Amino acid sequence: MAGFLEYPEFDWERDLIVQKKYVKARDDIRITLIRILQKRDKYVEPFKDLVEQYTSLWETSQLLRQDIKLNGVRIAGKKNDSVSLQVNVNKQMMVMLEKLDISAAEVKSDDGEDI
Fold first, then answer.
1. pLDDT class for 14, splitting at 50, 70, 90?
2. What pTM value is reported for the model?
3. Biggest alpha carbon–alpha carbon distance for the chain
4. What is the dihedral of CA 65, 24, 108, 103, to 10 degrees?
5. Most-buried pick from 54, 79, 87, 97 (CB within 10 A)?
6. pLDDT score at 4
7. CA-to-CA separations, 29 to 23, 25, 57, 69, in angstroms, rounded
8. 8 preceded by a cis bond (ω within 30 of 0)
9. DSSP 108
10. Are the beta carbons of 29 and 115 closer than 8 angstroms?
11. Residues 6 or more apart from 43 whose CB is under 8 A from it?
12. Which of 54, 58, 34, 53 has the alpha carbon at shortest distance from 44?
């Protein structure tokens, strides 16, 4: 079972958007957030937009992760900017969950794993 800080493993050598596993993970996150808000009768604007923003941030985080996996934390002796950018994106994702009033413990995929 994946923990909250673990991610599904994708084929980092291939374009992420064409990988079924990636698309499913992204869609699972989006659907889970929508279901949580629907149960609370809060799936209305501006919360709908926040779900889309969170999904976009998740995609950005995965692209940054891919860059780090492929290029390492250092590129030609210089630090890889994707490392600090990923930290900032992840912080923003946590802020988005707070704005949606959703705790990490609530965010489970359909198979019960953290997402």
1. confident
2. 0.79
3. 51
4. 50
5. 54
6. 41
7. 10, 6, 11, 22
8. no
9. B
10. yes
11. 34, 37, 51
12. 34
Ramachandran angles phi, psi of 44, nearest 5°: -135, 170
Which tokens sit at 89?
């994106």
Angle at 70 between CA 113 and CA 62, to 5 degrees: 35
Query: What is the model's pLDDT at position 109?
Result: 52
What are the extents of the domains in the chain?
16-103
Q: Where are the alpha helices (DSSP H) in 1-115?
A: 20-39, 47-71, 81-99
Residue 5: band (very low, low, confident or very high) from pLDDT cuts 50, 70, 90 = very low
Q: Six-digit token pair at 22?
A: 């990636």
Please, are residues 97 and 104 in contact by the beta-carbon 8 Å criterion? Answer: yes
Answer yes or no: is pLDDT of 27 > 90: yes
Structure-token match 């291939």, residue found = 14
Predicted confidence (pLDDT) per residue in 59-103, tens digit: 999 999 989 988 999 988 899 999 999 999 999 999 999 999 998
| Residue position matching structure tokens 């889970």 | 32
